[in-house]
Amino acid sequence: MKIRKKILLVVLPVIIVSILSISIIALNNFYVSTKNEIIEKLQLTGNNIVDKISRVIFERVGDIRFLSESNVLSDPNIPLKEKVNLLRTAERTYKTYASMSLYNKDGIKIGDTRSLYIGLNESQKPFFTHAIRGQIYYDNFPVLSQSLSQYVIHFSAPIYIAGGNISGVVVARYPISKLNDIFRIFPVPGTESSSPLRVDLVGNNGLVIYSNHDRKSILHDNLRDLKIFKVLTNNSAFDKGNKMTIPITIESTDRYGESLFAGISQGHGYLDYKGSGWYLILSESTKDVYAAFQNTIYEFILAAGIILTIAVVLIILFSNRLITPISRLRYAALLLSKGNYDTPIPIHSGDEIGDLSNALDIMRSRVTETNKHLNDIVDKKTKQLTDMNQSLMESKKSLEELNRSLIQSDRAKEEFIMMVSHELKTPITPAKMYVEVLLKSRSLGELSEKQRKAMTAVHQSILKLEDLINDVLDVYKLDVGKLSLKKKAVPVKDIVNENFSELRPLMTNKGINFVEKISPSTEGITVLCDPKRISQVICNLVTNSVDFVPDKGGKIILKADLNDKNNSGGNHSVVFSVTDNGPGIPKDKVPKLFKKFYQIDTSLTRKHGGTGLGLAISKGIVEAHDGKIWVDIDYAGGTCIKFTIPIDNREDNNEDVSKRDNNPNEKGEEK
Questions:
Q1: Pair 98, 133 in one domain
Q2: Is 60:137 a contact under the CB 8 Å cutoff?
């Protein structure tokens, strides 16, 4: 980095920080004063509107009370026509109401200034039910008038006769359109903008009662999603001592964009009018509100730019006088960096730069001498590296040839395994088919008992040979990591039930008591697995147990339960177990049990057959599912082999394994 840049980087930040500090303080003071002035005017405007609304509703309450106490309406001897004329006179005098009506004590309209729906029964309407009980009533929300087909606010009061009895109800309908006489288009407070102030009058449920900027929203739109409405309803800002509402002002980005909002609660109303629970929301775009503030910011930026420009010019003039000798010294250093050590450094002065040039010239002379010595060493080392590189290239070539040889060997091994399995299965298939035809049908002739036993032995040998071929293929696929799994979400209950059903005939033929146990804790639990491969594991374990249980009283249990926290895998897996009452497995034999071709006892192997691959294949399948398989060495009643399969984490499982039933349901055959 050049010295001129360094000087600029040191001095300019000081100037910028100074300008910014002064500007921020000034702008902040101006912003605060401007905002406070705008907020004060907004709040004052809102309070005036709310007060005016409360006064208007109070006047309407006074009107209906005056009519209720009128001698004309309360005198039963005055004809109904004169009473209706009195209402018409009041309607023309007030110039406020859409219509006025008289109802008898049964809620039947008996008189109306517009002569509409005479005889209509409105005894269930709120304005009647409250007034007939002696209350002065007014709607908290505008209601669609059936007779006028417009939204109105009902004001109703009882009509008393001699003795204090109520003879009927007088009702005045105040149209919501009359709110236009209260609201006006207000200019933006504190600015010269002609943009109107948005005014919304909403109920306590957020429904728009009046809007000066969106007439379609009246009694259709809801503003409860506005932040200002939530603040108003949550804080209940009301000064109980002064009976005045306290305005709340916030800045928010809602449906109107970034705006300044002022909200005022109607509070306790005015005098006898206790309020309707309405809220007044005033809002204006902050862009318009703070237009003057933005102009001030632009002026500050312009002034700061001019000051910075002057500072940069002065710094450049000062730095030029400082860096000229340094630039000459830099040029000499560049020559040295390019290998030109023969040109002496010509700068001589009495300051620090002169001392630096003299030291640099001494260094140049020494570098020249050292460079010659280093070149000799480099030549010698280069020759050594060349020889070593040649040796490495030859080693690399040998390794590549060895790798190709190994790949070809693996490919040949795979082709050999596949060819052998194919060639072995080719003659087995027709042999198996013909033996099954001989055993199951008479199309090729009737077999004697001796021939049938011989064919049965041949058929069993073919099946064992077929299983052996499949086992060899599975072991090979496990070794090379090519065992394919088609995983899907399978209920634990389905896995146990299907395998129990498939293996049950074998147990029946051999007289073995076969039992399945499914813990209630696994209800609704699914595991992510290849069901065919898991069935293969269960079949291997069960058929192994079949060979070793007693001929009489043999018992095999197939069980599923959630894994304990103390076991590896935590409680995020299901434990499947196969338990028998056979002779058990010696503890010293357990570590080798899952190795390929391992037999526990030679005599037993000769008696029961087997390749020694079933448990090794089962281990490979379980581990391919990210599970574990092991022998429960603590089980003393025979042999118990367990394996885990992870629960399908793609679905929520809220089962509390700590509270599961320790006595699972059992079903099976008891011999």
A1: yes
A2: no
Is the residue at 359 inside a domain? no
570 and 449 inside one domain: no
Mean pLDDT per block of 10 residues along the chain (671 residues) reads 70 80 81 79 82 87 90 89 92 91 94 91 93 91 85 92 88 87 55 62 86 80 84 61 53 71 77 78 77 75 82 77 72 75 70 74 78 83 88 87 78 65 66 71 74 75 68 67 82 93 88 91 89 90 89 91 62 89 86 75 52 81 91 89 88 42 41 34
Give the CA-trace dihedral at 645, 651, 657, 663, to 10 degrees. Answer: -70
> Is position 298 within any domain?
no
Strand partners, 154: 173
Locate 319 and state its tokens.
């730095």
3-class SS of residue 324? helix
Q: Could you identify the residue written with the tokens 């000769």? A: 606
The C-alpha atoms of residue 129 and residue 667 are separated, in whole angstroms, by 68
Decide: 644 and 569 in contact? Cβ < 8 Å.
Answer: yes
Number of H helices, E strands in the chain: 13, 21
Are the CB atoms for 23 and 304 separated by under 8 Å? yes
Q: Is 318 helix (H, G, I), strand (E, B) or coil?
A: helix
Predicted TM-score (pTM) of the model is: 0.43
pLDDT tens digits for 589-606?
Answer: 888 888 877 666 555 444
Strand partners, 168: 104, 159
Residue whose structure tokens are 């491969």: 533
Helix (H, G, I), strand (E, B) or coil at 230: helix
Closest C-alpha among 322, 70, 283 to residue 197: 283
Q: What is the pLDDT of residue 466?
A: 67
Closest of 140, 144, 133 to residue 155, by C-alpha:
140
> In terms of C-beta density within 10 A (0-12 exposed, 13-18 middle, 19 or more buried), how is residue 86 classed?
buried
Please identify, among 455, 483, 511, the residue that sits at the C-terminal boundary of a domain: 483
Here the tokens at position 51 are 């007060």
Phi, psi of 67 (to 5 degrees): -65, -40
What's the CA gap between 622 and 640, in Å, rounded?
Answer: 16
211 residue type, one letter: S
CA separation for the pair 641, 635 (Å, rounded):
10
- CA neighbor of 252 nearest in space, from 243, 262, 244, 242: 262
Q: How many CB atoms lie within 10 A of CB 613?
A: 19
Structural domain that includes position 553: 485-668
Amino acid at residue number 55: R
- Where residue 474 sits, what CATH number does that domain have? 1.10.287
- For 346, the 3-state DSSP assignment is coil
For residue 521, the domain's CATH number is 3.30.565.10
